[in-house]
Amino acid sequence: MSSFVDRPRYACALGGALATLRAIPRAIPIIHASAGCGHNLHNAINPGAGYLGGGYCGGLALPSSNVAERDVVFGGENRLREQIASTLEIMDGDLYMVLTGCMVEMIGDDVDAVVSEFEDTEKPVIAVHTPSFRGNSYTGYELVLGSLIQRFITRQQQKEPGTVNVLGIVPAQDVFWKGNLKEIKRLLERLGLRVNTLFGEGETLEDIRNAGKASLNIVVSDVYGVEAARKFEDIHGIPYLVTGFPVGAEATGEFLNTVGNALGIDQAHIDAVVESEKQVYFDYLERLADIYNDLDLQRYAVVVGDSNYAPAITRFLSDELGWLPELVVITDFLDDIRKEAVARRFDNFESGLKPAVRFDTNTSSVKKYIAEIWPRNRNQRYYDALNPTVLVGSVYERDLATEFGFPLLTVSYPVTNRVVLNRAYVGTSGALSLAEDLLGTLVAGR
Amino acid sequence: MNYLNAKSAPAREDRLKTNIAFGGTCAQLKGCIKAGCFGSNGCLNLADRRFTETQGCQFTLSLAILNTLRNAVIIMHAPIGCGACSIGNVGVNKTFKQLRDPSAEGVVWLSTNLDEVDVISGGERKLREAVLYADKEFRPETIIVANGCVPALIGDDIDSILADLQTQTAAVIVPIHCEGFKTKVMATAYDAVYHGILKKFVKKPDRRQYLAEPDLEKLKEQYRISRNVNVLNVSSMSRQDELELQRLLNAIGLNVTFIPCYAEPEDFEYALESSLNVSICGTHDDYFVQHIREKYGIPFLIDTIPIGRRNTDRWILKIAEHFGLEKEARQLIDVENKLLDESLEPFRRVLSSKRAFLAGGEVRIVATAEILQDLGMEVVGFKAHHFDQFIEPVFDALEQVDDVVIHVATNQPFEQANLLKRLKPDVLITHTGGNNIAAKHGLPILPLFGPSYNYLGYSGVYEVARRLNRIVRNPQFNRKLAQYTRLPFRKEWYEKDPFSYIKNQDAVVSEEAV
Predict the structure, then answer these.
(1) pLDDT > 70 fraction of chain A, expressed in percent and rounded
(2) Which among B78, B85, B433 has CB closest to A44?
(3) A-chain residue closest to B489, CA distance
(4) What is the pTM of this model?
């Protein structure tokens, strides 16, 4: 039974669907919903994702049927038919996707029937049911992918060995999605693979259409994209591999090994790639040897984030930066099975540390957990405080950071206090950026 | 006018016969105003489009005001996505509140997160839990419950639930009924919010009563009230704007209180100890000030918005007339105008003869055009969110705009893109939100408003001039975007009449206008 949420860190299914389409060049959404849905969600996605912007056909350019009270009485189907036809006349795209909002689903519009009237148009028109009450942004990502897998991606019997798709990085919800996809692609290409990330740099709708020829889907998440991967398996016969979200040299090494082994790549080749990645990585990281030890830049850490970032960053802090992550709050809606899968990522840190992990969607809870895991100052003369600490979270943690005097690095959605373009936090290059940004906050006043 | 016995404010399509789709010239539009097309006739009232783009609803616009109220928690009674736009407000909200009260907290909201189960069985349980949690966790003065489309459609009896909860909470609970599907006129949001404020915040302040009131105290009190005015601010105004208006009214001997934005709940009580409610924009305030006049006998002024010299002169004079302070006002206006006029000279040399297109709220665009004309610029077109009776007085300050195109559309950047190709302005002055499209025309853009810049009063004229001068100096950012990115509209669209998708062709008075 779900509950209310204190300052949600995601939009709704429609929001996730819009953000996912935002990531596909020349895809045109047609929202069938109340007038405000598109506008509201753009104003959540744009600032929350480090100023992602509306893009080619987003923001206030989003076609939307804007159904109002009188359509509720008579049904919105005629309005939708008119809107699809006029969108095809005006908007220049290669894929048109009808996305529904709450209201039209509640009044029972037969959206699929209306959309099926447009089967013979030159460019495909596909319907996806994305009312807000179906779930949050992550659900929207799965729903759009599910539709593409079912209705758009060409079925191919012949798979290309060495070609893989990457799933599990949700555009906009992962604020650094495009940079992250680029880094994952770079790493996998080093193994000699052809990599389709669906939404990455230079990738187009054609890449999505041809995703059916891959011989493996790699899901870099314990939670997101797993449903899509299953659908891929059912419909296109492509097996999948769940790897988790690799941040740092060790995690990246494991990631490359897991993928390499699954595809039967020569172990010597994998080892050589991992070795050279680590060499480059430590060549940079070594620069910090002086300042880290001169200034004692070890910190306690509190990490607040989603199921991808929270475990990955915590492990990086613990095992590579040598910090002391004490509390991790994971802010997704998760069932018990998924919670267990995510919780397992905190087992067996090389440092031997075992941070307290909490699953909670309420923003106000983070502070309460700090009080729970760390003894209070009872006015004793000598008090071992949780200090110095760095907070890694979202912009919602700013008040907490101010109150406790913790420096804050915003990494998880929403991130409104940074502008994000092609930065990545995943992989080895991403971990170096993360180290730059974390230690950068500590030396900013020098 | 008294709608306060109703559950919620009526839609503006009904109350004001507001129009959201029109294409023609300013002269034609004025003709329509005279003929009553925007008023009681309302023949343009139901005009709409065959193709529409997203446009914002009364829920999102209500939040723009509600988020500013101090010491309040907002409960969005809706599925998880409604009101997610508040994310963009998290940081600046606290800063802006602290300009009014250094100890103010930022915006806090809860979503009742209605899911598939709630759609069938109702959202009452979650609403109750959320309200009680908000009261216990944050101890706010006010809990505002704004409901979206879903509870309205499933028929949650929100008012009864909240009336019951009110007996269990320390905070005052204020319902705001602002479901998006009710209206296509976003500005209905102002009425929806004021409806809640009028019902829950506005009451006579609880002052200490004298057993025997001395005459002198009574006179002092009356004198104080006789010099108080409320200026109704809007969330798109800046603190600098407020300070400028305060400076001008102080200069003629009046005291100013700003409501509703960034106000504390009790500010609405003290606001009744006032002699005049002054709106700066009819689009925002008519619902509130008319109700206050009816219930508490406080007169109001809705005329022009103090943007541009003539509009500011007129605004001050109208207020001064009410208090018999015309002489003081004229002195002030003379001094201010002389100084400002000289200061604008250097900008006129750069800006004169540049051609501008303005898009945004009806009152604001027409008023801002006055600044442009003052700088010697040419106005080549307007795009207004909607149109109703409040536009008329603002036109008075403009010269020779009869042939200028005016287009009514809430957002709808496709029509704007088509118009801009035809009108070929040099500079755009636009409402926020649609600039991923507008920027790709390659033109310099000045935002029509901004909560951290000064636009109002005399200082606002100077600031707008100064910024325009800066912005036209280097439009390379947008120019490069135009060079390397493209707009999403088919080339055939630009060959069609920009108003050809407006359904009610009565609303397209002149195709040859462009």
Answers:
(1) 100
(2) B85
(3) A91
(4) 0.96
